């Protein structure tokens, strides 16, 4: 019975907590990725159309069409650059796959099927904890790798900009 209580506590305090966190992060990074990607695609489609609009509208002595084209182009470049640095798509997929893996593993453990079939409670729980902790560690490593690449890319960009000044 103490092992069952321990496994129940572990599932509630560790597995379900991480599942909720990964779900929240997956939803947030997916939304960010899709918003940025959508704006990039729409902006990339609008710019060629606006370039063909006849000039003539001015605001404070600036052609409105040129200003709008410049601003949209700038936003597209910023969004595409941010995605290439922070890899929101990869983060979203990584968070979602880890969240799904934790749920899958919890189901297998609780129903004692698959790799948990035929194991006594202690061995099953030990295997479950190992697999959950490995999944969390792997995701942390992947996120750290993405963030490290983002930091290195930012440093290269800054050095390039500094050398041009």
One letter per element, helices H and strands E, the order comes to HEEHHH
Question: In percent, how helical is the residue content?
Answer: over 70%
Contiguous helical run count: 4
Radius of gyration, taken over Cα atoms and rounded to an integer in Å: 24 Å
* Spatial shape: rod-shaped
Strand content: under 5%
Distance between the termini: 70 Å
Low-confidence stretches: none
User: What would you call the structural class?
Assistant: mainly alpha
Biggest β-sheet strands, sense, barrel: 2 strands, antiparallel
Number of beta-strand segments: 2
**Strand adjacency order, main sheet:** 1-2
Total domain units: 1
Mean pLDDT, nearest integer?
86
In short:
The chain has 165 residues and is an all-alpha fold. It has helices at 2-51, 64-86, 88-111, 121-164; strands spanning 58-59, 62-63.
Commentary on this structure:
It is built from four helices and two strands. By secondary structure, it is an all-alpha fold. The protein has one domain (2-164). The protein has a two-stranded antiparallel sheet with strand order 1-2. Helix 1 packs antiparallel against helix 2 and helix 3 (88-111) runs antiparallel to helix 4. The chain is rod-shaped. The model has no long low-confidence stretch (mean pLDDT 86).
Which helices and strands, and how do they pair?
Blueprint: H1 2-51, E1 58-59, E2 62-63, H2 64-86, H3 88-111, H4 121-164
Antiparallel strand pairs: 1-2
Descriptive labels:
2 strands; two-stranded antiparallel sheet; mainly alpha; 165 residues; 85% helix; rod-shaped
């Amino acid at each position: 019975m103490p092992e069952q209580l321990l496994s129940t506590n572990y599932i509630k305090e560790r597995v379900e907590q991480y599942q909720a966190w990964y779900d929240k992060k997956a939803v947030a990074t997916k939304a960010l990725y899709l918003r940025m990607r959508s704006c990039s695609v729409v902006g990339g489609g609008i710019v060629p159309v606006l370039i063909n609009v006849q000039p003539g509208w001015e605001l404070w002595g600036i052609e409105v069409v040129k200003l709008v084209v410049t601003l949209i182009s700038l936003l597209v470049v910023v969004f595409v650059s941010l995605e290439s640095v922070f890899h929101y798509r990869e983060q979203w997929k990584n968070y979602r796959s880890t969240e799904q893996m934790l749920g899958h593993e919890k189901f297998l453990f609780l129903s004692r099927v698959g790799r948990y079939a035929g194991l006594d409670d202690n061995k099953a729980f030990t295997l479950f904890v190992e697999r959950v902790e490995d999944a969390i560690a792997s995701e942390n490593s992947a996120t750290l790798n993405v963030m490290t690449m983002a930091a290195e890319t930012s440093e290269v960009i800054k050095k390039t900009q500094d050398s041009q000044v």
